[in-house]
Every structure is written in structure tokens, then in C-alpha cells.
Amino acid sequence: MNLLRELSMGEIVSRIAAVILYAGIQGLLLAVIARMMGDRRPQYDGRLTGNPFAQVSVWGVAMASLFAMSWVRPMRFDPKQNRLGRWGLVLGAVLALAAMVATVPVIDLLRPLALMLPRTGGYAVIYVLSQLQILVLASVALNLLPIPGLIGGVLWQAIWPGEERRLLRLEPFGLALVIVGIVAGWLPNLATMPLPWVQLR
User: Fold this and answer.
1) In this predicted model, what pLDDT tens digit does every residue of 58-104 receive, in sequence order?
2) Range of the domain at 116
3) Where do the TM regions start and end (predicted)?
4) Helices (H) and strands (E) in the chain, counts
5) What is the rounded distance in angstroms from the CA atom of residue 195 to the CA atom of residue 174?
6) Beta strands in 114-174 (DSSP E)
7) Has residue 154 been placed in a domain?
8) Is residue 119 part of a domain?
9) Pick from 62, 7, 27, 26: which is nearest to 137 by CA?
10) What is the pTM of this model?
11) Considering the domain boundaries, does residue 141 fall inside one?
């Protein structure tokens, strides 16, 4: 909880901007990979878009602003449409998370462009990009957990493809457990760890 006392308003605002970017990219990656595997359900649900407001989770934003860890709004898949069957759901989730990690070095390429902006604006953009890198790494690690509501929760849909309604009822409890784990400090927080390749100042 010491982390909360050390947060500045600027840091919270930067994390909110970062999580909006994160949600848009991560949600789009999930939907694109599902579509490539033949599953049109995310597309029909309006998730095949980079619009972050179609992907963002309100509780995910709250956790990101305070603890730099987040998740996107749970996405529904149809294992019957997936070319690889129900285990294609797990592969798609892993590929989407791996692709998200791959954006971390790409974000570094945007820093010189930010320096072309007016000084104050450029520094603000660089700070948001740094927060985005931390948020991506922490959130990908979090979403590997096979908890309903997180991306890794698709594991249960692969194991029990006919139990979608039951899994949907478990999502609020799963996310509540995640929130408690983050607040209580049971889950490692990358925001408090030194990351040498991320320059916040």
C-alpha cells in the first residue's frame, strides 16, 4: 500500500492514458487472431476494432491507475468456429499476449517522434509511453493466470466448451479475486520493480 501514497496525480493520469492504449491494442489483437482462426464471434460482438472504449474494463482502468496492472473486458469466443477447435482458443490467447509483449520494443521507436512535439507535450507523451511499457508487461503476466475474466481464463472454456453460462457467472468472482490479490500484494507488481530499459525520467 506504500505505492498508493507515493503516486502523484500526473502518474495516475499517465497510467489512465496508458491503459486506454493498452486496452485498444490488446482487445484488437485478441479479436484479429480469433478471426484469423475462423472465429467470427468477437467481430459480431463489436470487438474487432482498435477503439479502446469497446475493449476497456472499468475495473481494469482502476487497477491500472493505482497498481499498473490491468485486463480488457472479457471477450467471448466460439470454439466450434475455431479451425483448431477448442484448444485453438488457448493458442489464440497465448499468441495475442505474445504479440502484446512484442509491442514493448516497438514503443521505444516512438520516443524520438515524441521529442518533435513541444517540450511539455513531448515529455508527457514519453511518460505515457513508459507507463504503457510497464503496464503491458505487468498485464500480460497477470492475464496468463487461468482465472475467468482474464485472458488466460479461456483455458476453462477449452476444457468445458459447453459450460459457457457457468463460466460467465464465475467471471465476477474471478475478477474480484484478482483485485483482492493485487491490492493485498499477493501478486508481483512490476511498477515497483526496477526495469532498466524503461526510462520514466
Assistant:
1) 999 999 999 999 999 999 999 999 999 999 999 999 999 999 999 99
2) 2-192
3) 12-33, 53-72, 84-104, 124-155, 167-187
4) 9, 0
5) 29
6) none
7) yes
8) yes
9) 26
10) 0.91
11) yes
Number of domains in the chain: 1
How long, in residues, is the chain?
201
Could you tell me the three cell numbers for 7? 503516486
24 within some domain: yes
Which 8-state DSSP code applies to residue 73?
A: P
List CB contacts of 6: < 8 A, sequence separation 6 or more: none
Q: Is the Cβ–Cβ distance between 16 and 61 less than 8 Å?
A: yes
Q: What are phi and psi of 9, to 5 degrees?
A: -65, -35
pLDDT digits (tens, 9 = 90+) for 110-168: 888 887 888 788 888 999 999 999 999 999 999 999 999 999 999 999 999 989 999 99
Minimal CA–CA distance to 29: which of 103, 105, 85?
A: 103
Rounded CA separation 127/118 (Å): 14
The cell 500526473 sits on which residue?
A: 10
Phi-psi sector, 89: left (phi>0), alpha (psi -120 to 50), beta: alpha
Q: Can you tell me the distance from the alpha carbon of 147 to that of 154, in angstroms, rounded to the nearest whole number?
A: 8
Question: How far apart, in whole angstroms, are the C-alpha atoms of residue 85 and residue 80?
Answer: 6
